[in-house]
Amino acid sequence: MASLAYPEGRRPNIPSANVQLPAVRDYEQVDNEITATLRPTGPWFAGLALAVVCMLIGAAAWTYQIYWGLGQAGYTPPVMWGVYIITFVFWVGIGHAGTLISAILYLFRAGFRTSIYRCAEAMTVFAIMTAGLFPIIHIGRPWKFYWLIPYPNWRLIWPQFKSPLVWDVFAISTYLTVSATFFFIGLIPDIAVLRDRETNPVRKRILAFLSLGWRNSEREWRHFARAYLFLAAFSTPLVLSVHSVVSLDFASAIVPGWHTTVFPPYFVAGAIYSGIGMVFTIIIPIRKWFKLEHYITLNHLDAAAKMCLFTSMVVGLAYLSEFWVAWYSGNQYEQRYFWNRVFGEWWWSAWILLLCNMVLPLSLYSQRLRRNTTWLFILSLFINLGMWYERFVIVVPSLSHEYEPWQWTFYMPSWVDVSLLVGSFGWFFMWFLLFVKQLPVLAVAEIKEIVPPKMRAYGGVGHHVAAEAHAPALQGGHD
Amino acid sequence: MAGILASYRELDSTVHAIEELKKQNFRDIDVYSPVPRHELEHAVNPPISPVRVFTLIGGLLGATFGYWIAIWTSDYWPLVVGGKAIASWIPYTIIGFELFVLIGSLATVAGMFVHSRLPKLTMTVGYDPRFSHADYGVFVRCPPERAAAAEAVLRQQNPLEVRSER
Amino acid sequence: MSTDPGSAGVKRRDFLKVLGATTAAGAAVGCTSDRVEKLIPYLVSPDNTTPGVSNYYATVCRECAAGCGVIAEVRDGRAIKLEGNPEHPLSRGALCAKGQSALQGLYNPDRYRGPMVRQGNGLVPTTWENALQLLGAQLARARSGGAAANAAFINQAESGSFPAFLDQWLAAFGMPAHIAYDADATHAAMEANRQTYGVAWPRLDFTAARLIVSIGADFLETWGASVPQQLSFADARAKLADAPRLVYIGARRSLTGLNADEWIAVRPGSELAIANALRDAVGGNMGTLDQAAEAAGADAAQLRRLAAELAAARPAVVLAGTTGADATDVALAANAINAATGAVGTAVLPAEPIASFERTAAYADIRALVARMNAGSVPLLFVRGANPAFTTPASLGFAQAMAKVPYKVSFSSYPDETTELCDLVLPDHHALESWGDSQPLPGVVGYQQPVMAPVFNTRATADVLLGVASTDEQARGRFGGATNYREWIAARAGGPRALADALVTGVADGTVLQGPAPTRAAPVPPSTPIQQTEGDYYLVVYPSPLLGTGAGGNKPWLQELADPVTKISWQSWVEIHPLTARELGVQAGDHLTVRTPTGSITAPAYPYLGVRRDTVAIALGRGHTAYGRYAKGVGVNPLVLLASAEDARSGALALASTKAQVTKAAEHSPLVTTEGSARQHGRGIAQAMLPAELDAGPVEHGEGHDIPGMPPLEFGPGLRSPVAADAQGVYADSGSKDKGMYDPEHWSGMAKRRWAMTIDLARCTGCSACVVACYAENNLPTVGAPWQGRATSPVTWDERPGANILKGREMTWIRLERYFEGGEDGSSDFETRFVPMLCQHCGNAPCEPVCPVYATYHSPDGLNVQVYNRCVGTRYCSNNCPYKVRYFNWFGYGEPDRRQYAWPEPLNWQLNPDVTVRGKGVMEKCTFCVQRIREAEHRARLEGRAVRADEFTTACAQACPSRAITFGDAADASWSVAQLAVDRRAYHVFEELNTYTAVVYLKKVIHPAPAAPAQA
């Protein structure tokens, strides 16, 4: 509508904090349109089937590996960590965008968060569920993984709390618990909405149970808002800490290429960057297939793309500073490694990551591309690829060219590694696809909040405050 | 306890209804709305939510426990690793922090549940599914002799419906 | 807590704590086997056996002709370890890799279970009665036919009375003396020595020499008796500044060549010219040098300088071990030089010859025998301990000739190529199961005794012979009525009592029974000298230092152990100069086809600086077509390339007798190597110094390392790490009343100790005996067998030999790193440094803090402990180890039902019960032989004393034939390691990482040529 007023490409820059939903008129519309998305469709079943198949491939490969031993993976000592740790870090990173959007942007009152945070949060929970599997897949005796958890036992043998891996156990499990809680708390009112719309008695019972008997009373809303605020306040440092802790797995080792203080901020930025990439990968098809363009407007994507651009530049800076430090330190081991990183056996992986994470995102300087869903989707795939290779470049070349030249070696993943990588995507998307058809992909209550309420004093149309809130959106609009 | 339930389409009528009821000394009021609105909160004017106390206590307990478990266990089997101190508090800060966040968040949720009386196993009297949809509701608990008065007040603000629940 | 010293009782609490610290030995062996009855082999044990306590028996090693003395550790009736016999005059307690692997010959899963007899195309089991009956019948047939005089008996060349005993028996049946065949022997040198000194092998004393020149004499590996020579050479090198230079002359740099300070790369076939020229030069006539250098394609100036050195240095030893058609002449020239430089009597000692080689027959004898076999005149052939069908050139046609022999009897215990062609197999006992004697030096007899009951239904050949003789009226009574060889030996030793006494040390005065030296066949030299053979590259074929000419092939330790020079295992390779390889467009691993008139082979190329650009070199020992699962089908046998040509004087097979066509083949197979980068990249792992620097006063370590406000960065006394929280006591008192073994008053004295090791790179020759010792002591699995690989798809497996090693998964707790210095331009002027690399037991170990479950931590006595039972396999410790000495169990190597099982029955009988077999998915590494430490501590405890200085040592240190490794308590000055650790040459690898390692390396001392530029 407003797009008629401004020819394509000459739109004013919409402040991210002030993204509105002009095409959403009243509460009824929200309820109806969002509950409409829950009807299962043929393509959805197909996608779910594909995801399950991939997951089963991974499960079979894992069983095989547990039986024979880790020798079936591609490990080539001294490259003792490989695809599994890479994929672990990859999925943990993916998770971060969700909490960032739902918690940090909530505290910063960034309006564009409202339409996308539910998807992002779900993505977080499922990504952590995926990541959490990989340390177990990775270890030599997976049936003993619980030894990393401090549980009371009669000999009082405990984990070694100086080990970064134990820090991981705490960070990841805390992160999973808190983000899942945060996710669920936010869902309660929306489940109540579904409950009250539901006609099927069985589903109604289940939803009633999940909604914990929520009844939209002012008292509930009051405590709800408080709790939500504090959870956001907790999640904010948490999201920053988790990937910092993961980065310590590397930074606190003395391996050349790992032993550097830039890792925590660098990993956090990378995580958010990769997470936003995955958000695009998920959101863009959803808004199209679920017909939600007027909820997730181009302004939302535009704002998210800016965040993506920013984090990509942070990551790029980190890459460059790593090379600088390696050169400036005069440490021959570091220098050798970083030379090997870009010109050694794996030169291509290093260049892939530099291209995907430093060069391509620069295209987001163009507003036209920021608002081009096709390009955003393609770019998001490159971002996922690049961020997987970032972890590959950190893990593999470092270990393969360590202090001891006699033990320098080459590494190539085996079919088992690849199957488990595929399986992890299957596992993740299986959960996500189940989610999108059982629960609202948009936060119903929060979207209603930015829809102007009915006022008798103004003949039922939104009253003036809301009308002002409308104003910029009238210029921004959507397609 | 029995009472009168009125539902409104508009926010301002709901607000006025609440204000009127308070003028007339109807204290036991439940207000329902599809979304939290400050207008309603001001009208009801409740005390500030005490959830934050849970948050504080939970957080402090978590941090303390985190440090304690790490230090006590290392000291129980004093095995030297890498020539580092048996109980080295710097890395243990991570454990402390993570448990601070974990216990803190869970305590917050607990606080919310306690104070908003969740989970509820039954739909108690005075609720209507439309409140989660688009309409506002006001439920006044009052003895039968005052029911008429309450209903009168509620009807002034053109409700969609007024009914007495029991 | 403490229990009163002197009381033998160990309280339960102490016991648990000991268990806690001896975690490496903390689990029972045999957990992987449900066959409980195998745990202790017998219900009623002999009187001298206590379950769980080792017995030690002195005996003789028969893996090569030298016959070193060994001591077998026997636990519960099973030999589990071989170590050198300190009382023995030759080996002085050392033992080489081959010798230690004898155990895997004893327990070889492919040994014959009992006698076999031919039935159609195959050999089928039979009974001893039946087998002996057949043997008797054949003997009778031969004798009645009058053809007995044409029968032949090929026996391994061995030291002792048995050869003469055998000849007596043969004579009794009218058969000629046996052929004492040793395919690995260096006949040319022996022949020359016989002519010069009248003995086959004078003992060598390198410590007396000022200069050593080796003309292709690989005295550290296959030339003569390697262990005593290596001991002497290491002692000579240990003289540091006064040590003799070693100059190596040859077309290929062998292990001996790599230990040389200088290499003069000469063409094969030109050594005689060089040797003669040097002889003339020492005699004062420098004239022929340039001409010789011209012929050899060597630098005349270099040669002239060497000649000058040779003339000046007295005594200077020249050793010749060439394998050409003129080998004996070269050796004679060398002997002449030795006489001129006064080496004879000082460094070369004809007065005390190593007696083992006197009777050795040459290749010519086999060739003559084959001629007779082809003529159909040999009615009966016996083979024992030799495998001529494999160790002679295919062109000789030994196998085909065997077909023309009516009846062939083998005494071999293994299904080797020769035995598979025989009609009757009477499997002999392994040397460790049988009686015997040997003569290391004149006047000294080493006695051989069975160390355990026979593994299989085999029978000592000597007993078989006696048995046959006792049933034969003509032979009966020849052997003093001895009914078995033990009695016969006892009689020679002066009665059972005397024998029993002698067996305490294993050596006694006396001499063995000597037989008349047999007549030798006349040699047939090659028709064309090597220079005239067609082909573009000289071909050098040499016996492998580990596999010899093939005898070692069925022992997984020797297959797995990386070749000391090329670091390749489970594979054959063609050594080619890097520049030549570049010309041919050949990368490492590309296959090369080597073709001669007699045949051709194809093997992957190994670009090696140590061969001349006009030469390719191939090792013998692989390419078996039989000989059991570990040998069969692994690698190729270069003997197919050789014509049956002999050294003109000694009749030795001329290994360097032809050129070859070398072409690039299509295939490529990655090298099964443990080598990453052969260059140090300036990281100071293997350090060296010049003699001049030795007397530059003590080094002040790390001047100005210290940082104000920080603990000092220098070692405390006794190699103690200075960091405040170091394990050795500081943090012992962590508030707990019971400090366990951190208690300074604990009986084990752990908190007072710091176990440490010094490795003297001046002594180390890179022979890798320590690696095999570690395999034996610590139950390391071999992982390179073709069936031990991983799946390459859900249905296919990687079945290349060494598949796991291609993935870098070898399990060598101690490995020999071989770094090159110089020669980047492909020149022959490069230096080699060997570094045994094992867990450094860092005072501040990077591996420890990263383990999430305390599976690795620091014990109070300074050990970096690995708790297998606790390990979950995160492998973080390995990532964080700068030395990369941690090894992971990728497969269930210890699980009998898996294809990766490393000890198929009965190889598992060798497993050391003191060390657990690690399970799938756990990390393992060098433990400093913690089981030996604890054993010594407990023994001392039981005897109510403290552990004595140098009372025990680790397996690697015990075996080392260079005496390069010293182990002990650095915190106690009375241990020798404590002095060595502060030596002028001491350094720590990657010192800058502040890991405070417990392993101290002593810099190698290099001796550059007088005029040559020093590169240290």
Q: Care to give the gist of this entry?
A:
Helix content of chain B is 51%, strand content 13%. Chain B is an alpha+beta fold and 166 residues long.
Task: Pick out its properties.
heterotrimer, B: 166 residues, alpha+beta, four-stranded antiparallel beta sheet, 13% strand, rod-shaped, C: 1016 residues, alpha/beta, seven-stranded mixed beta sheet, six-stranded mixed beta barrel, 27 helices, 37 strands, 23% helix, 17% strand, globular, disordered N terminus, disordered C terminus
List the helices and strands and how they pair.
The complex is a heterotrimer of chains A (479), B (166) and C (1016).
Chain A: H1 27-36, H2 42-68, H3 83-107, H4 113-138, H5 164-197, H6 201-210, H7 218-251, H8 263-289, H9 298-329, H10 332-343, H11 347-359, H12 367-370, H13 373-400, H14 415-438, H15 444-450, H16 464-476
Helix pairs in contact in A: 2-14, 3-4, 3-7, 3-8, 3-13, 4-5, 4-8, 4-14, 5-6, 5-7, 7-8, 8-9, 8-13, 9-10, 10-11, 11-13
Chain B: E1 3-8, H1 11-23, E2 29-32, H2 38-44, H3 51-76, H4 89-115, E3 136-141, H5 144-155, E4 161-165
Antiparallel strand pairs in B: 1-3, 1-4, 2-3
Chain C: H1 12-21, E1 54-60, E2 69-75, E3 78-84, H2 97-100, H3 102-106, E4 116-119, E5 122-125, H4 128-144, E6 152-156, H5 162-172, E7 179-181, H6 187-197, E8 202-204, E9 211-215, H7 226-237, E10 245-250, H8 255-258, E11 262-265, H9 271-282, H10 288-296, H11 300-312, E12 316-320, H12 327-340, E13 348-353, H13 363-374, E14 380-384, H14 388-391, H15 398-403, E15 407-410, E16 424-425, E17 436-438, E18 444-448, H16 461-470, H17 485-493, H18 496-505, E19 507-509, E20 537-542, H19 556-560, E21 574-576, H20 578-584, E22 590-596, E23 599-607, E24 615-619, E25 659-668, E26 688-689, H21 691-694, E27 755-760, H22 769-778, H23 803-806, E28 815-822, E29 830-837, E30 856-858, E31 864-866, H24 876-879, E32 886-888, E33 923-925, H25 930-942, H26 955-959, E34 965-969, H27 976-980, E35 986-987, E36 999-1002, E37 1004-1005
Parallel strand pairs in C: 6-7, 6-14, 9-10, 9-12, 10-11, 14-15, 15-16, 20-24, 21-23, 26-37, 27-36
Antiparallel strand pairs in C: 1-2, 2-3, 4-5, 4-16, 8-13, 17-18, 18-19, 20-25, 21-24, 22-23, 22-25, 27-34, 28-29, 30-31, 32-33, 35-36
Helix pairs in contact in C: 5-16, 6-12, 9-10, 9-12, 10-11, 17-18
